[in-house]
């Protein structure tokens, strides 16, 4: 085990480390200041959430304005738009950032908003955040599949160079999206339902279809999706290994979903997500989220996860791919 730790540390220090999704409730600069958690953990690239269907689309635009201004003022964070930009940021010792949006309510019914969000730094969008919207079905709702608007959105996302992200969407919606997209799709932060039967997790054929498209499934660090509220590195590694065996190491990545304002909650430890859950139970059905509060693995666990994967018998190249190389490969195809 000591040897695995030493090798893992060497691999980790030299690898592109990619976290495919982070954050809820971006409301203040202090929320952005928690990006230091990822930087200090050695993360090279992070997709920062700036909005989701729970909030009005105008909140998303304001969040983008806040985040862009804050990042522009930093010396060690770079807003990137292409893989070449990402590589330059990494070479300079900076952490690369793009934005993501969870749900098409942010489009306010206008296909033109896809290009606008792309121009502002958004590089992935989810179809529906748990509940249905104008584009398609959510995972906690009647799965209506893709609407005509949703199909048009996919075509536009393919055109501008944005990840089609199937996390949080209903089964039929994801399968139809993967049929329509002309470029690889991703599940930025979704876990195997075969290991833990939660509506937010995905079935094996969804993961297989993602891999067949050339895409990547990112393992999520939230305890209610991992099972038994167990956010240990061992449990995250177990979910990663399940997908390595099912779809191949080249199609597995990491999207921890660590809450961006986890360190700026109230004095009693209640965070922005906890408040959102209590105020919007339709988006998070109580039977699916018992207890309300959400526990999540931290970016600092990534190094230990790399060691666990080596101990499971994965090669150095496979671990490097899971840490970030696989998502970079797909981004090269989608973003350019």
Describe the model.
Helix content is 43%, strand content 12%. The protein has 336 residues and is of the alpha/beta class. It has a single domain (2-334), classed as TIM Barrel (Alpha-Beta Barrel). Helix 6 links the parallel strand 4 (95-102) and strand 5. Helix 1 packs across helix 13 (302-311).
How is this structure best summarized?
This protein is an alpha/beta fold and 336 residues long.
Q: Which descriptors apply to this entry?
A:
single chain, 336 residues, alpha/beta, TIM Barrel, six-stranded parallel β-sheet, 14 helices, 43% helix, globular
Distance between the termini: 39 Å
Quaternary class: single chain
State mean pLDDT (0 to 100 scale): 93
Annotated CATH topology: TIM Barrel
Order of helices and strands: HEHHEHEHEHEHEHEHEHHEHHH
Radius of gyration (CA) equals: 18 Å
Backbone structural class:
alpha/beta
Q: Any low-confidence stretches, pLDDT <50, length ≥5?
A: 262-267
Helix content: 40-55%
Number of helices, where a helix is a run of at least 4 consecutive DSSP H or I residues: 14
Count of the separate structural domains: 1
What is the CATH architecture annotation? Alpha-Beta Barrel
CATH superfamily name?
Metal-dependent hydrolases
Q: CATH first level: which class?
A: Alpha Beta
Shape: globular
Strand content: 5-15%
Q: Note the main sheet.
A: 6 strands, parallel
